[in-house]
């Protein structure tokens, strides 16, 4: 059993290490756009003997904390993957409480008034109430001059690409462009202009928690030249020091941008 004295000593050492780590970061090596795959909520709940919904609640609480950390170092855009298209097939007894938690979280992020909330995902796949909350948060924060927070709900990388191509085809068809003409002239920039994140810089750094080392379909197009950082901590246990380590690791890399 940990004694109060040992706990205080441990916290003091931890705080010292955290401050030292923060001072070591170079302001000119900060990522502009961070994508984060928040993984491990369910495992966290099972590990402590709580219902799965409690894990989702703990994970939701961590999101605003994470955004504060990003804001502190000058990040311009953060994309938080909160719910995938695959997650929509989960049993109703888990999915419905999760959707309520997401709705509450997005409303809270908008109410803070410091960040511009932008939904990214297939809103047409979501229940009407959830889609309305996402649209409302975007409308309420559209004039906020702060960090952009992409809330990826009902998001899947393959679905995004399909939606981008569909949008491109419809736009060009409305101009009277034939499919043959389009096939001849289309390039990567045309598709990029129809992604959910159009107009934003691609993510410099993608973080995934819980020890899983895969993207699972997250920002497939945008992450082609991103740096990746995989952390063992489950998302509710992800600490400021874990974040700073990810940033330090990113800053130490020599980015080649595909060359």
Written description of the protein model:
The protein is of the alpha/beta class and 259 residues long. Helix content is 49%, strand content 13%. The protein contains nine helices and six strands; from the N terminus they run αβααβαβαβαααββα. It has helices at residues 4-23, 41-47, 52-72, 92-112, 128-141, 157-174, 179-185, 188-192, 240-252; strands at 33-37, 77-84, 116-120, 148-155, 205-208, 227-230. It has a six-stranded parallel β-sheet with strand order 3-4-2-1-5-6, with helices on both faces. The longest helix is centred in the N-terminal third of the chain and has 21 residues, at 52-72. The model has no long low-confidence stretch (mean pLDDT 93). Mg(2+) binds at residues 39, 227. Keywords: Magnesium, Metal-binding, Transferase. This is Isoprenyl transferase. Homodimer. Belongs to the UPP synthase family. Z-FPP synthase subfamily.
Give a quick precis of the structure.
InterPro entries: UPP_synth-like, UPP_synth-like_sf. By secondary structure, the chain is an alpha/beta fold.
Topology:
Elements lengths: L3 H20 L9 E5 L3 H7 L4 H21 L4 E8 L7 H21 L3 E5 L7 H14 L6 E8 L1 H18 L4 H7 L2 H5 L12 E4 L18 E4 L9 H13 L7
Unreliable segments of 5+ consecutive residues: none
Classify the beta-strand content into a percent band: 5-15%
Distance between the termini: 53 Å
What summary fits the major beta sheet?
A: 6 strands, parallel
Helicity level: 40-55%
Average pLDDT = 93
Compute the number of helices.
Answer: 9
Number of strands: 6
Question: How are the strands ordered across the major sheet?
Answer: 3-4-2-1-5-6
Helix vs. strand class? alpha/beta
Radius of gyration: 20 Å
Overall 3D geometry?
A: globular
SSE sequence, one letter per element:
HEHHEHEHEHHHEEH
